[in-house]
Amino acid sequence: MERWTFLILADEQGDPEQIRIFLRRGDDPDAWPCLQVALDGTEVAVDTVQKDYEAPEWKALELFTAGGGSPQRWEELKDKLRAQAV
């Protein structure tokens, strides 16, 4: 079973603007595949900004689609992390 972590990063007003996604494989968090994405689906550089909160996948996907991202793009991003974890 896959284990995912979705960290929500907000702007200065507290509105969600990016999601950092981890595929948790293995016991070493530093080795987990990770990417960061704007809510419109555009990949951005992974940074070290503190998370505002961790969300379950359904909530992260809700924010993502409300920001202009698509469910298809969401699955593409997850597939990209799966490929990195091989």
| Count of distinct strands | 5
Helix count, DSSP H or I runs of 4 or more residues: 2
One letter per element, helices H and strands E, the order comes to EEEEEHH
**What is the percentage of strand-forming residues?**
25-35%
Mean pLDDT: 95
Give the strand line-up of the largest sheet.
Answer: 4-3-2-1-5
Shape: globular
Could you tell me how far the N terminus lies from the C terminus, measured between alpha carbons in angstroms?
Answer: 15 Å
Oligomer: single chain
Instruction: List unreliable stretches of 5+ residues.
Output: none
Structural class: alpha+beta
Radius of gyration: 12 Å
Helix content: 25-40%
How would you sum up the major sheet? Answer: 5 strands, antiparallel
Briefly characterize the structure.
By secondary structure, this protein is an alpha+beta fold. The protein has two helices and five strands. The chain is 28% helix and 29% strand.
